């Protein structure tokens, strides 16, 4: 991919690498870490939910198709989505 394509968000999805993350939030004993991902000129809702269970740190990564115009908006919505996942599923998200 050329320099200008990278500069202006053209082509590909940016490799799908997580963008620098925002500050984590504690919610009902879980920790939600926003991790918006760049997709072209948009940002995808993504994050990590963590909780220590029986002395072991469990982790669940989520990625949604919701797109946002800014990284901040995507990270803010990732917190909303993380809370929703916790409310609906609780510790079941860590089942193998």
Give the N-to-C terminal Cα separation.
38 Å
Task: Report strand %.
Answer: 35-45%
The CATH architecture is: 2-Layer Sandwich
Cα-atom radius of gyration: 15 Å
Helix content: 25-40%
Mean pLDDT, to the nearest integer, reads 85
Structural class: alpha+beta
Notes on the structure:
By secondary structure, this protein is α+β, with helices and mostly antiparallel strands. The protein has a single domain (3-94), classed as Double Stranded RNA Binding Domain (2-Layer Sandwich). It contains 2 helices and 5 strands, in the order αβββββα. Strands 1, 2, 3, 4 and 5 form a 5-stranded antiparallel β-sheet that branches. The longest helix has 19 residues, at 71-89. Residues 1-15 have low confidence and may be disordered.
Overview features:
five-stranded antiparallel beta sheet; single chain; alpha+beta; Double Stranded RNA Binding Domain; 96 residues; disordered N terminus; 5 strands
What's the short version?
The protein is α+β, with helices and mostly antiparallel strands and 96 residues long.
């Amino acid at each position: 991919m050329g320099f200008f394509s990278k500069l202006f968000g053209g082509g590909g999805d940016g490799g799908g690498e997580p963008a620098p993350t925002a500050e984590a939030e504690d919610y009902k004993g879980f920790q939600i870490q926003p991790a918006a991902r760049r997709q072209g000129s948009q940002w995808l809702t993504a994050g990590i939910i963590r909780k220590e269970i029986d002395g072991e740190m469990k982790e669940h990564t989520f990625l949604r198709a919701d797109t946002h115009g800014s990284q901040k908006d995507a990270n803010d919505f990732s917190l909303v989505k993380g809370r929703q996942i916790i409310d609906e599923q609780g510790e079941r998200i860590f089942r193998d």
